[in-house]
Design goal:
Number of strands: 5
Oligomer: single chain
Order of helices and strands: EEEEHE
Number of domains: 1
Distance between the termini: 19 Å
Strand order of the largest sheet: 4-3-2-1-5
Radius of gyration: 12 Å
Largest sheet: 5 strands, antiparallel
Shape: globular
Helix content: under 10%
Structural class: mainly beta
Amino acid sequence: MDVQKGDTLVMKKKHPCGSNEMFVLRTGMDFKLRCAGCAREFMTPRSKCEKNIKSIKRQTEGGETNG
């Protein structure tokens, strides 16, 4: 799965605050994520996180659309 810094992940399960959207701050063996609801930052293993991703929202550079 192609997850990049700056993406917004929509997760299958909700964070304890009730939000299911997470911002990607860092990628690698682990992901560093920030909750869109409460702004808490945390790190999670890549394999665990990729299983729980429902969709990825990606903003293109310069407002361009792919296609």
